[in-house]
């Protein structure tokens, strides 16, 4: 059922996609290989751009296996002429793209982002006080993404006024970040929570 649903959505996504556009598919280790097979067939394996490993710290732990601390983002395009803007991340031991020089902080480039992202915490470990309150009320999505993750994705592959489409809107993080970044957006959600 899940594979059929994904195939239908990914085929639609390819039809909607601009020639300079790209598609990110975010999956956990239980489904990433299914996603890769589907995307290779729908987009053609030659349109595969990157596999990004998003490694983050989780509060949970396991006693009989390694702790699950990563998910995968698969990046595909429709053509070889896709838009891509290199992103910079802090260097090892730094947390921001600023440096102290005496009493002042100055911006600097950092290093070019690799395909292994370790500087973005999971939503559950980086919630604000307001987000924790919402979670206590029961309005919480287990798969919710942090805004910083979506921001990097959108800043890498889109420009101001570009259109961003999220077929699995969930709590609306993608559209919220797209709006803040000056992108046009469209979100699709089938879950019952949409009505309540």
Short synopsis of the structure:
By secondary structure, the chain is of the alpha/beta class. The chain has helices at 2-16, 32-44, 129-136, 147-157, 173-180, and strands at residues 22-27, 48-55, 70-77, 88-89, 98-101, 104-107, 111-112, 116-117, 163-166, 184-187.
What would your notes on this structure say?
With 196 residues, the chain is an alpha/beta fold. The radius of gyration is 18 Å and the shape is globular. It has helices at residues 2-16, 32-44, 129-136, 147-157, 173-180; strands at residues 22-27, 48-55, 70-77, 88-89, 98-101, 104-107, 111-112, 116-117, 163-166, 184-187. The strands form 4 sheets. Strands 1-3-2-8 form a 4-stranded mixed beta sheet.
Which features characterize this protein?
two-stranded antiparallel ribbon; four-stranded mixed beta sheet; alpha/beta; 196 residues; globular; 5 helices
Topology readout:
Blueprint: H1 2-16, E1 22-27, H2 32-44, E2 48-55, E3 70-77, E4 88-89, E5 98-101, E6 104-107, E7 111-112, E8 116-117, H3 129-136, H4 147-157, E9 163-166, H5 173-180, E10 184-187
Parallel strand pairs: 2-8, 9-10
Antiparallel strand pairs: 1-3, 2-3, 4-7, 5-6
